[in-house]
Write a structure and sequence with these properties.
Layout (H helix, E strand, L loop, with lengths): L21 H4 L5 E6 L3 E5 L2 E4 L2 E4 L1 E4 L5 E5 L1 H12 L6 H18 L25 H9 L3 E5 L2 E2 L4 E2 L9 H5 L23 E6 H7 L10 E9 L5 E8 L2 E6 H8 L9 E6 L5 E6 L8 E2 H9 L4 H8 L4 E4 L2
Parallel strand pairs: 9-16
Antiparallel strand pairs: 1-6, 2-3, 3-4, 5-6, 7-8, 7-17, 10-15, 11-12, 12-13, 14-15
Helix pairs in contact: 2-3, 2-4, 3-4, 3-8, 3-9
Length: about 325
């Protein structure tokens, strides 16, 4: 998921440094989730189905026929936390996920748009009642109304699966203004992730196909080199060597073009041509963009007995956990 710039509000001396402005804290209207087109039917006053999938709340049909789900924030979170983190993970990790997901929504909601969120990775994955789990529901209820704040506004939170040893700065990942609590931290907590360390072989034919728009016309990939790295060690630029010259490809474009399954993260270690010169073998650490919360790290900290508040202050240093009334 991506983040948007947080609105900054003028500090008021009567409140603590990071307290959210009370006007923002009291906005508790129904969320509007754009579900898309399909057959919607009410099953009760506060449940409906869309193409057979059960949702909480009510729905409205837009002028273009698409369905918007009007749902209470906390009930929306039951489903989101269930799909964004395994229900068997420790309660403190699920509580961290609930607080991050809630903060993400509060920071983004904008009454000027005709919906707040889409139900995919573009925002947060939301699958209605069908996706809900008991572990996630308990975590949402245990943290009801809690959100992360910074400088009198909701914090801009982000999360991804496994940082691979160091979280990424949002400015390096997305080129937006640096946020002090998203600068990146060393993370020793995610080594149990199956993606903590990975190895891949990338065939030059496949790279030629997938990178074609970034390469000289009709060229063929012959090698890769990491051209530049950012402070966390992630590849900022990849030098793609072809038979017709080199192309300097930004790291984010490289990963997007080649595919996140093939390149799980930009924390790439070594790159070496295979002996048959038909592919490169690469290895690296982590899965995802690495900004903000490391979900496997939250699991590791929770298993070590850390509380949700301790985990959040580790990954988002300088923010405050606030309870909205
Ligand atoms: Zn980590």
């Amino acid at each position: 998921m991506a983040i948007a710039a947080a609105p900054l509000l003028a500090p008021r001396t009567a409140r603590a440094q990071n307290d959210v402005d009370p006007a923002m804290a009291s906005q508790r209207q129904a969320l509007r989730v754009l579900l898309g087109h399909g057959d919607a039917a009410a099953v009760s006053a506060d449940r409906f189905t869309l193409d057979g999938r059960l949702y909480r709340g009510t729905f409205q049909r837009q002028d273009d026929g698409s369905i918007v789900n009007l749902v209470d924030l906390e009930e929306y979170l039951y489903s989101v936390v269930s799909t964004e983190m395994p229900a068997r993970w420790p309660p403190a990790a699920l509580q961290v996920q609930a607080i991050c997901a809630r903060t993400y929504v509060l920071q983004r909601s904008d009454p000027r748009r005709n919906y707040d969120l889409v139900p995919s990775e573009l925002d947060q994955v939301y699958g209605g009642v069908t996706a809900e789990t008991a572990g996630a529901t308990s975590a949402v209820d245990a943290t009801s109304g809690e959100a992360l704040a910074f400088a009198h506004a909701f914090a801009s939170v982000a999360y991804s699966s496994c940082c691979g040893g160091h979280t990424e700065s949002s400015a390096d990942a997305w080129g937006n203004a640096a946020l002090p609590y998203l600068g990146g931290v060393p993370c020793p907590w995610c080594i149990d992730s199956p993606n903590y360390r990975w190895q891949r072989s990338l065939a030059f034919d496949t790279l030629t196909q997938r990178l074609t728009r970034a390469l000289p016309p009709a060229s063929r990939v012959q090698d890769l080199r990491i051209e530049a790295r950012d402070a966390s060690g992630r590849a900022r630029a990849v030098d793609v060597v072809t038979d017709l010259g080199d192309a300097n490809v930004p790291g984010s474009l490289f990963r997007r073009s080649v595919g996140a399954r093939v390149v799980p993260s930009l924390l790439i270690g070594s790159v070496a041509r295979t002996p048959d010169a038909a592919a490169v073998a690469i290895d690296g650490n982590g899965l995802g963009h690495g900004v903000g919360l490391c979900q496997w790290g939250a699991r590791g900290m929770a298993l070590a007995g850390r509380s949700a508040a301790e985990i959040l202050s580790f990954y988002f240093p300088g923010t405050d956990l606030q309870h909205l009334t």
